[in-house]
Specification:
It is built from 16 helices and 13 strands. By secondary structure, it is α+β, with helices and mostly antiparallel strands. The strands form three sheets. Strands 4, 5, 6, 7, 9 and 10 form a six-stranded mixed beta sheet that branches. A four-stranded antiparallel beta sheet has the order 2-1-3-8, with helices on one face.
């Protein structure tokens, strides 16, 4: 017989480096949950499944299931639980849960997935689907859920006790493809939502960093304003604050006894704007790998293949500029390739990209890399006229036979054929 913990971990894939546990009233304390930042061992899982102890688990960042927790804390009765259960099922097109557990306070509906999904996307979609229902999405990566006892599973249709053994119950349970349950909303919508939320998070973090830095300046006194401007304005600007927002924050730091020219807000704003003009803009940091010497050599070899008829100095300069553009393009594409290779070998990141950009894993497995239009536009405004055709003609790029769909995030894919050179 397969150990209980093997069946549980294979089908649930809990996060193992943290767990929750419960101390009951029978042990002389209030019944409550506590968190332990320790490893959830196989023995602990077995003990919880057999009902000897009470432990709870968290989900990983890329789970293969989700659970809907339906509780009856106010003791409204079985009718209430069944009513909420039916309403929940309707949100999933009447698909029953893979397995159903009878918890001390209600029901835990487990839905097993055919493949892992990034938790961030899964959770956001479930919140939208289950909006206004008196249920909870548990566990999450931060909120734990009790490990079920094997004897308390019931049939999702009849609500009678199940008679299969635990291994058979879990291993034969239906696994749903996410679009079946979650509806296939356009990944572009999800990307936009996540982008907005990330922007808000980054802005909040920046403001926290600003506040921490400002703590070094209890007050700005006479004779210290220039030093303070030199230290604070670059911080404000790199955090995305406008000149007016920077002036307002700086003005608030002036000491009550300060009597210099910056007491005049208009003069302060002029100084800040002057600083903004003199400070170089922050460089855009891209999540790309470092290039190696091979990439430099490759870019030179490919650019040397480009020829045009040269009759005068202007044409010679134009040819030189185009060769430089080709070098830049090859270096950028090599950089992009290394970045995507890093994404592909990381399971969680790969699944995340595969959901937001359909067929990412399939195309990468076949050797085709997505090169989006925005990247090409950064290289050349009219890349379709000569840059891209040249890289294809010379044999460096080979376009995949697959189509293009802007709404669903499927850009053109290319084989990057370094071995030709």
């Amino acid at each position: 017989m397969t150990p209980y913990h093997t069946t549980f971990t294979k089908n649930i894939n809990p996060f193992r480096n943290r767990y929750i546990y419960k101390i009951t009233k029978e042990q002389g304390l209030f019944s409550d949950w506590f968190t332990a930042d320790n490893y959830l061992t196989d023995n602990m899982i077995d003990s919880a499944l057999m009902g000897r102890v009470v432990y709870g688990y968290f989900l990983t960042a890329c789970p293969i299931c989700f659970v809907i927790d339906i509780d009856d804390h106010t003791k409204k009765g079985e009718g209430y639980l069944l009513s909420v259960y039916d309403r929940m099922k309707k949100r999933f097109f009447d698909f029953p849960p893979s397995v159903l557990y009878r918890s001390p306070n209600g029901l835990h509906a487990y839905y097993f997935l055919a493949y892992p999904m990034p938790f961030e996307i899964l959770h956001e979609r479930l919140k939208e689907i289950l909006k206004d229902l008196p249920v909870e999405i548990k566990p999450t990566t931060r909120i734990g859920l009790r490990i079920p006892q094997v004897r308390n599973f019931i049939n999702p249709e009849t609500f009678l006790p199940v008679y299969e053994d635990f291994e058979t119950l879990f291993d034969t349970a239906v696994r749903y493809y996410p679009p079946e349950l979650l509806t296939d909303i356009a990944p572009a919508e999800i990307r936009e939502t996540l982008k907005e939320r990330k922007s808000k998070i980054l802005k909040t973090r920046s403001l926290q960093k600003i506040a921490n830095f400002e703590n070094k300046f209890s007050y700005i006194e006479n004779g210290t304003t220039n030093d303070a401007l030199c230290q604070l304005v670059p911080i404000y600007r790199s955090s995305g604050l406008t000149a007016d927002e920077t002036a307002q924050r700086f003005y608030a730091l002036l000491a009550p006894a300060y009597s210099g020219e910056l007491k005049n807000y208009r003069r302060l704003l002029q100084r800040v704007k002057s600083f903004y003009r003199s400070i170089p803009a922050e460089p855009i940091i891209k999540n790309t790998a470092q290039l190696d010497f091979f990439s430099e050599m490759l870019s030179n070899k490919i650019s040397d293949r480009y020829t045009e008829e040269v009759k005068n100095g202007n044409q010679a300069r134009a040819l030189k500029q185009k060769k430089e553009k080709i070098k830049t393009a090859v270096l950028r594409i090599e950089n992009w390739k290394m970045y995507l290779d890093g994404i592909y070998i990381n399971r969680e990141k790969r699944e995340y990209w595969n959901y937001l950009y359909p067929f990412f894993s399939k195309n990468m497995k076949e050797g085709f890399y997505p090169i989006p239009r925005n990247l090409w536009r950064q290289l050349h405004g009219n890349y379709n006229e000569w840059l891209l055709p040249f890289l294809i003609d010379v044999g460096y790029l080979e376009r995949s036979p697959y189509g293009y769909s802007a709404g669903y995030g499927t850009c053109y894919h290319y084989k990057i054929k370094q071995d030709v050179f």
